[in-house]
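Predict the 3D structure for this chain.
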Amino acid sequence: MAVGLFVWLSSDDENGDKRSSDGNKITENRDERTHSDENKVTENDTAAQHKDTSTNLAKTANPAATAPHLVGKAVCKECHQENFDLHSAHGHAHTFHVLNQSPEIIAKFAGKTFDGGERFGTYHYQAEFDPSQDTGVVQNLKATLPAVFGEEAFPLTYALGSGHNAFTLLTLITEENGETAALEHRASWYESQDGLNITPGHANKLPADGLELFGSISRGESMEKCVDCHTTSAKIEDEQIANLIPSVNCEKCHGPGSEHVRLAREQSVPPPYSVGRGDWDAESEIQLCGDCHRLPKNISEKELREYPDLLARFQPIGMLRSRCYLESDGELRCTSCHGPHESLHQVPEERHIQNCRNCHTSPNHTICPVSPKEDCIRCHMPPMEQEQGLTFHDHWIRVR
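Done. Predicted structure below.
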């Protein structure tokens, strides 16, 4: 989708003067929006393909000559059924969605409207159906701004988020310089509201041109990081994503599993397999989690000094300045309190309180003089409200 097809409207255009259809038209060439057969692979097909590859690798005479590669979570499931089941309910397992394979997400937008604000207008959402089928199969989602572009439509291609909090829409575009960029749509769906509202961070943004009437644009490393953190494998090529394995699956954190699988199938007691090397420690784990959940290096010095409430959504930043971490002799890490495979939404508060008491009951640790057995989370890690009612617990473990 070439950016040149969108132009910023003059005041005459906003007053209703006739626009040049060539200047403002949004292309709807579905051939350009559809992945090629070799790039568009469903997750089940990918898992089956990886399983076959892994099986062949185990039979290879000289496996060391084969570079480590991804085998897919279905192969991990063969031995790790419990972790697989826990992960299936975790937000990590549902962080990236191809909309033409996600009718349940399309249904949250289709047929609805949303007022994007004075400078933007009202979005109208429509589901497109596959004309080659008579079963009502949804093919795509598109948005229109009738007051600005008439019935010309902007395609919405991907969705980010597990749905525990929200779904935010993303579309890859080609800018005038031929480079690929990503447009994050101005409206998101929120579980707490069961409806549409402004995407976090968009409330104070103004459109620089006609294209940005549909959302905010990211480029280069920022765009690539956005996609990378929501997928296990992805390579942006023009307006498509090649080698796509959506969402954060086993090998996103543990690394390519081919050698581990080979050894497991050859030996009755395979060697242990970890997310890191033999010197894996708390610092290694925090760096791994913080790569997507943010580290101090990702935040401005001003924000680190002032620590606005919005930083609560970046948990490692708060934890790294907490006394619990600083006085733990390098032992406190993310998995000290969180099961890496288990959804936070399935863990009762009592278990989090017990995590606090596991440390704060010994003579070498501070014992709370107010409530040593309860209310730890409410007092020291309260939920901080963000935009659109989203809440994140403050991991700068302190009395606010």
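Residues 2-65 have pLDDT under 50 and may be disordered.
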